[in-house]
Structures are given as C-alpha cells and as structure tokens.
Amino acid sequence: MTIITNARQSYSWTQPDITYHPDRQQWQHRTEKRLAEDPSLPFTPLPDGFPKELSSPLVWEGKDCQTEKQWVFELTSTHLDEIDAAVKHFHGLNVPFGQISPATFPLPTLGPVLRNLARELHHGRGFFVLRTIPVDSYSKSDNVLVYSGVSSYVAEVRGLQDKNGGVLSHIKDLSQLYAKGAIGGPAYTTDKQVFHTDQGADIVSLFALEVAAEGGVSRISSSWRIYNDLAENRPDLIQTLASPWIVDEFGRDPPFTERPLLYHVDGKVIIQYARRYFTGFQGLPRSADIPPITEAQAEALDALHFLGEKYSLGLNFQKGDIQYINNLSIFHARDGFLDSPQKTRHLLRLWQRNDELAWTLPEPLKPLWKRTFDITPEKQTFAIEPVIRDVVQGKN
To answer: What GO molecular functions are on record for this protein (predicted)?
Structure first.
C-alpha cells in the first residue's frame, strides 16, 4: 500500500477514489463493500447524547412542500414604495455601506414582517423567499444597498467573505474570464454545485439579479431529515460524521484543521460541511501532503449528497427574489446551467447572524464564526462587480 509522507507523519492509506461530483454507482459500490466487510455497521450505537430521531418543523421533505405560498412572501406595492424611500433616505445620510442597518434603512411596515420571517428561519422550516425586488429599476450599487438594507431586518450582523473587508459575494460564471486552474470553487462556473453548507455563517441569503437561460435550479434539503435517515439506517455514519475530519486549508498555515462535521448542542443537530474541502475542485485539488480521508468518510460524504437529493426541494428562483436559509439546518445546491447573451445567471450573497435568535454554537465551530463575524461596520466593503473570492482562487 502506498505511504504518503510529510514532515509531520506517514499515512498508510491513500485518498479514496472520490471526486467533487458524486457518482451514485460508486457510492453504492462503496456502501456494499463496507457492509460486506462489516455487517455490524448498521447496528452501531449513536454517539452519546445524539437523538434517535429529530421532531421539528425543520424536519421536512421536498414532497411535503405542496405550494410556493408555504415559503414565498410577496412584496406589496406599499413595501416596494418603502424600499424606494429607504434608498433615498440612506443616500441622504452620506454614510458608507457598512452603516446599512434598520436605523439607516427604515422600512416601517415591511421591517416587522421581515423580523417575523427571521423567526421562521430559526424556529420554523428554516427558509423563505422574498419576492420580488424590481432589480432593473436600480443601479448596480443601489441593488446592493436594497439587498443589504432589506436583509438587515432578517439579521443585522454581516459576515466577512473575502479579504479587505468584503462582506458581499457575487455568484456568477467567470470561467470565460479566468483560466480553469484559476478557479477553485464551483460558484464561479456553470457546473452543478453539490449539497453543502457555507462555512462560518448562521444564515445564507442569495439575491437573484438574473437567472440562467437554462438550468441553474436552486435546491435545498433539510439536514435534520437526512440525520433521521442516517440515525435509523446507518448510525455508523453518524459516528463518522461526529468524529474529527481533516479539513484542507489548501496551502494556508496551518495546512489543515481538524473538526467534526456533525454536532448536537442544546437539542439541535448542526451539520457543517462542504465537499470540496475533502475532494478538491478544479484549481484547488485536495492537498497531497495532508492526511487522506477514509473510506467511511468518503461514503458519508456521498450519503449526505444523495440523501440531500432524495429529500430536496427545487425552488423556483426568479429574477429579483431573495432566498434566505438557515445554514445550520439546511443544505443547499444548484443544478448546472447555461447562460445566454440575454440571460446570465448572477446572484449576490450575504453571510449573516441574528444575535437575538442565534443558536448556540459547538466549540469547534466558534473559531470559524469569529473569523466570519469579527469585522466592524467601518471595515466592511461591498464589491459592486464580480470577483473570485481569495479563498477559492486556484493555484494555477
């Protein structure tokens, strides 16, 4: 067997045959092989304190969601007039965008509605869509202002996504502008994006400036429903997910960190993972000089994705919509897509935290959250044009 060596340790196993894009047959073959080698796996005890089953509105399946009225809130003409007035009010203050807040972006009737919807994120089904902002009526910078101002009522604290204080990201295909080796994350391609959570945020919101000409469906899935499936059928994978994993830092110092992907805190289950940290993606392949993942971990990654697909809901994400999800209880993904000269998919993203409603974080995640939210309004910057975030810039 190949031994991978670095200055710290020798590893007597190799990275499993697993890539960013999951292969269902490969997953099924790996599962069959592991169960044949150890038939006792489905009878593994759950980790101490972990529930046999979660019962909550956060446990849902896509088939349970019969109509968009269950999760879409339609803005009225009064709400849109308030947003217009708030834009004018903010410009009159002559303050930087880092000061965008309910105090500087007043929404007298819409604001209380948004605060109530924030409770839906934390105590309801964990997601909603706001429909729809007339994006063509605003400049690029005013669309950023509207998005940030409206979102400040859902969660006032914005998180850092990029160096130099960047709290706003653009999700857009940039593969025509950059070489393949310069892109290390699927957000900047037309590729399918597999189920994952974003790293270091309570709430992830997306604002659709434009949708794709074809494909690009936004998909979400209840990680609590996935937990219940695994707890019933494969508790050994719960054990695997709740044990430390080697998280690739892609050449930074330290070269990797260790933490579980699954936690149970205050009666809540939290899964935090993104597949590319364990498989690599395009210009950021999995580092060769760090410990490989195990076969059990490879199976667990595939199980999370394919169960995510099984229970997922495809959202009819329209131009001008803002999608909000609880990043601690919901996985998100998107289908591959095609752009056209007339329709080029372009989303804006914020990472947010509502200090009043926020869940208690497990200790291993607190450094990630500190890194995200330890930025004052004075240091926040908002990219008006798309750029590749520094952490997903390829090495080539």
So the answer is: oxidoreductase activity
Which tokens sit at 276?
A: 């590319």
The string of pLDDT tens digits covering residues 317-333 is 999 999 999 999 999 99
Residues 244 and 389: beta-carbon distance below 8 Å: no
What's the predicted TM-score (pTM) here?
0.94
pLDDT at 396: 62
User: Model confidence over 56-91: pLDDT tens digits?
Assistant: 999 999 998 889 999 999 999 999 999 999 999 999
Tell me if 260 sits within 8 A of 241, measured CB to CB. yes
Domain-embedded: residue 229: no
Burial class (CB in 10 A: 0-12, 13-18, 19+), 385: exposed
Residues of the chain with pLDDT > 70, as a percent, come to: 97
By DSSP bridging, strand 322-326 and strand 330-334 are unpaired
Q: Report strand pairing: 203-210 vs 346-353.
A: antiparallel
Question: Within a domain: residue 76?
Answer: yes
Q: Quote the tokens at residue 354.
A: 């509502």
Q: How far apart are CA 262 and CA 260, in angstroms?
A: 6
Q: Could you tell me if residue 343 is inside a domain? A: yes
Q: Is residue 113 part of a domain?
A: yes
Residue 248: C-alpha distances to residues 72, 79, 287, 289, 368 (Å): 37, 44, 7, 10, 14
The tokens of 331 are what? 């996985």
Domain count for the chain: 1
> Taking residues 301-308, what's their average pLDDT?
98
351 lies in which domain range? 69-218+317-392
Average pLDDT over residues 104-118: 98
At residue 8 the predicted structure's pLDDT band, cuts being 50, 70 and 90, is: very low
